[in-house]
Design a protein that fits this description.
Elements lengths: L2 E4 L14 E6 L2 E5 H7 L5 H8 L4 H9 L10 H16 L3 H8 L5 E4 L18 H15 L2
Parallel strand pairs: 1-4
Antiparallel strand pairs: 2-3
Helix pairs in contact: 1-2, 1-3, 4-6
């Protein structure tokens, strides 16, 4: 089975990365990347959320989100982060061009090649959960089925 490994927001499959520049609208708020939209939900203080929303680059939104102290993170983040990512991806791939590109990946296994994140990616040992790849595969299947 074909495998598509993505990580950076460049190249043929860069559009799969959360750092890829695209409009994402959730809860009436507009974001310039999926990373902005995802990280926005993590802090428990509105000032930090606002800072993330206007970060000039997706990687800066990620740096802020990853750099939060535990007491600055929503108490239920670990319980809600997967659903948040699912909503972010649904919004991102509601774009006609991006949706078409996702569908064009066919039945390939989608792998987020992050060596530093064993939850969303494969981690440094290559045996991570690959949750981002799994959620993209789940969404692709829904789009194929028209549900």
């Amino acid at each position: 089975m074909e495998k598509i490994v993505f990580y950076k927001a460049a190249g043929q499959y860069g559009f799969l990365s959360n750092l890829y520049p695209c409009e994402v609208c959730i809860d009436g708020k507009m974001f310039v990347s999926a990373e902005h939209a995802y990280q926005y939900a993590k802090p428990n203080k509105q000032a930090i959320k606002d800072y993330i929303q206007i970060a000039p680059l997706p990687r800066l939104a990620a740096i802020v989100g990853h750099g939060l102290f535990m007491y600055d993170v929503c108490y239920d983040w670990n319980d809600t982060k997967v659903d948040r990512m699912r909503k972010v991806l649904e919004s991102k791939f509601s774009d006609e061009v991006l949706r078409k590109k996702l569908l064009e990946t066919g039945d390939a296994v989608l792998i987020e090649g992050s060596k530093t994140d064993a939850f969303w990616g494969i981690g440094k040992k290559g045996a991570g959960k690959n949750m981002l790849g799994s959620l993209l595969t789940e969404l692709r299947k829904k789009l194929k089925e028209g549900t």
